[in-house]
Amino acid sequence: MTAFTDFFWTAHDGLPLHARDYAPVGEPRGLPVICIHGLTRNARDFEDLAPRIAAMGRRVLAVDVRGRGLSARDPDPMNYHPGTYAGDVVALLAAAGIARAVFVGTSMGGLITMVLTSLQPEAIAGAVLNDVGPELSPVGLARIAGYTGLASRFDTWDAAVAYAKAINEAAFPAYGAQDWDVFARRLFDRTDDGFVLAYDPDISAPIKAAAEADAKTQAEGGQALAPPDMYPLFRALAKDRPLLLVRGAISDLIDVDIAQRMRAAAPAMAYAEVPGVGHAPMLTEPQAWAAIENLLHEAP
User: Fold this and answer.
1) Quick one: pLDDT band at residue 218, thresholds 50, 70, 90?
2) I need a surface site. Which of 4, 28, 140, 240 has the fewest CB within 10 A?
3) Domain 5-139+229-298 has what CATH class?
4) What is the 3 state secondary structure string of 9-61?
5) Whole-number pLDDT of residue 219
6) Interstrand relation of 124-130 and 188-191 (parallel, antiparallel or unpaired)
7) Residue boundaries of the structural domains of the chain
8) Once rounded to an integer, what is the mean pLDDT over residues 16-29?
């Protein structure tokens, strides 16, 4: 595994945050790459991808979003939303002295990247959206909401691995025992009290609050609030910069119809589909990696 250093910075509200910092291998070639993980994950998701990108001569920062990994937990759980996270990325860019970068966003990380177009669009030189877009299937959203913030501690490693498999097996049906062991090591921290998921269970607070508000509104005869229209941000992201959508072929979050609408809204966007994988590809699969290589050759 390629070595990295720990990079710490401070958010606008004083919260200490962390990223893994992979130095470029050999002569630096091109802008840095910032990798942002999904809702319940952390920077370890990129432990295979980041060294590959670094080997191309680019610095890579794999972020622990607040409340995950080595980043501090927010005392106000209602701050756990993409607007806050995008502000944290702005602070990261300033702290790391990065004016422009290529962004790789998995799931929530892609939403953060889209929100960043409204805060600091000039910072985005290109982007990879990993199984995420301006609209999301309610099937996948319900599945993710169903486990976020629930079981978080296990007494034995076998139980932790079994949990990782139970939650993610539909997305990776070809995985074997060794794959699930590696996967679980990305999800869990070992403590004196057993094995604990590496995120604050309270990241689910805004999701639960929105669901409760919708339920109350409907019980009173009203209509549930429609999700915000992210297409303007998506179109802004797609304008005048390289953009790639990677989709898991059996994804329940970005279904075929959504992918088609995204491609229609951004005709110049590159597209790669990973067979036999759901939400979300690890990005080292041959189809995904070849497309990412192409984007990085095109991006400054």
Assistant:
1) low
2) 240
3) alpha beta
4) EECCCCCEEEEEEECCCCCCCCCCEEEECCCCCCHHHHCCHHHHHHCCCCCEE
5) 72
6) unpaired
7) 5-139+229-298
8) 96
